[in-house]
Structure formats: structure tokens, C-alpha cells
Amino acid sequence: MGLRLEAADLSAFLTREFPEVADDFEVLSAGDELAMRLKVGPQHLRPGGTVSGPSMFALADVAMYLAILSRIGPVKLAVTTNISMDFMRKPEAGRDLIGTARILKLGRVLAVGDVLIRSAGSEGVVARAGLTYSIPPGRAA
């Protein structure tokens, strides 16, 4: 099926290319789905002690980006063209967030997928994101 990047490869790519955010995330697994942890810290909280929407957005965006790269290789210029988020419940206090990304369609120029976000150790979905990415010509795969 071609090139597949593993969790360690994706973590190294994130650290090398996006060091400003890499410390916030941990790639847990890569395969048919990609699981990623947002290490929730004070910078991710909003008043009321819950994780902010922008932090959940970042988790969804980075998880889908890396899920796509796990299939096509380290293409820096794949970019988000659309994202839609549904916030379903308040994240549990004091817990990291886990985003599970799956690719629904991987085409030549567009990739479509979704990310489910949960509080670590919980089955309840906190948020759901639907994303579309543009893949530049000459991708690695």
C-alpha cells in the first residue's frame, strides 16, 4: 500500500518541523486510525477550568495532519482547507485529551477525515471534528 509512517516517525517530524507546538502533543499510535494526546496544561484552559475550544481545535487539526502524513509521507505543505467542530460535553477536569483521527477518503489532491476527542480514560466524546486537507502536487507517496 506504499509508504506508512509510524508513531515515532510522526513524533520526530512534529518536533523537527513544528517545535513551537510539539511539546503539547504525543502521538500514541498510527495505523488505520491515529491516536494523539493533548497534554493539557494551564495554557489550554479557559475560565471555569475547562479546556478551550482553540486547544481542542489544535488537537483535531494536528491529529488529522499526522494521520494523512502517516499515509503519504512527510509532506510539509498539506494544509487544512475546511474544519467543522461540534462540542458535545465539557472535558473532564485535570485530564489530558485524546484525539482519534481516521481518514475517510484519501484522494490525489484532497483528504477528508474526522477526529473524535475524549477526555483520557473516558469513553464519552467531548468534541467531533470533520476536516478536509489539500495535498500539494508531487506528494511523497
TrEMBL record:
It comes from the Bacteria. InterPro entries: HotDog_dom_sf, PAAI_dom, Thioestr_dom. This is Uncharacterized protein (TIGR00369 family). It comes from Cereibacter azotoformans. One of its GO terms (molecular function) is acyl-CoA hydrolase activity. Keywords: Hydrolase. Residues 48-122 form the Thioesterase domain. The keyword Hydrolase applies. Gene3D superfamilies: Hotdog Thioesterase (3.10.129.10).
